[in-house]
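S.,

Sequence below, as promised.
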Amino acid sequence: MEEKKKILFGVLNWGLGHATRSWELINKYVLAGHEVVLASDGVAAEFLSAEFPLLKIISLPSYNIKYGKGAGLVQMLFNALRTNRAVVAEKKFLDDYLSKNEFDLIVSDNRYGLFSDSVKSIIITHQLNIKVPFGSKAVNWQNHKWLNRFDEVWVPDKNAELSGELTHPIPHGINKPVKEIGLLSRFKNLNQTKGQEIDVLAIVSGPEPQKTILVKKLQQIFEESRYKTVIYTGEVNLRKTIKKGNLTIKSHAETNDFYKDLLTAEVVIGRSGYSSLMDYSVMKKNFITIPTPGQDEQLYLAKMLSKKGIPVLLQSELSKEKVEQAIQKAQLYNSTK
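The prediction came back faster than expected:
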């Protein structure tokens, strides 16, 4: 019988992606009888608190990453400074917390400061080779330095099929064991009947202000559309549903309810964030991606997908005509798979 452990599980607050993908591992630890304490902030903490109401959750310093209407050197430098400050702050927080609480294992989903020399520490990441428009060597030098503070690096993928150059080849600068753990998704083993038929399910996620910008554009496009559409706006603290003709706008839903819509939808529109792509791959969904402006990783993943025939739309060029064409292309792609 596996020895029961006390586990501190930290999750990065960068939209909902890291929280939703961590759901599978957290759930496995709970079902196995381990004592799990969660650590996060912002909407990620709100999501985890709603999904695991019986688990203790502690608040961590925010990374406070922002993506404005444009992307450039100044914004990149500001985000780098915010990240460095957050890593230092969460490491200090952890040291203080461990001086009063004992743990057998620390698991961190992309929170670089959650490591300890006295407790086995594992980091989950698909970013071994970070994609940036400039300063790649400096950025990845710092990234590898942080990763090497952990005992193990877990990559949510198999044979780099989804992550591509983000994880392969494994950089020489990483000197800790790197282990692929397969795709993570909270939808793997759910048994649920389908909900009402949906033509298009749009899932908007990621940091502000780009999330709200995309919600408004999609709402305008689908308000008078012939497609029966549901848009999720990613507002975890709300449980609001608005109907306008064929369009239904939902702020958020818990896993089982969201799964019904995802299972039923013929076409899914969403970001090319890694966690979302894992969900679509596991669910074998027919989808269209809209990469978040300024996020080079999402642009890279979208480019990979476009080479496979999966429709990609740029947020700045969204229009009713282009969305219609992409939906038809996605339906055609699905019929030829």
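The chain has two domains: 6-180, 200-335.

Coffee later?
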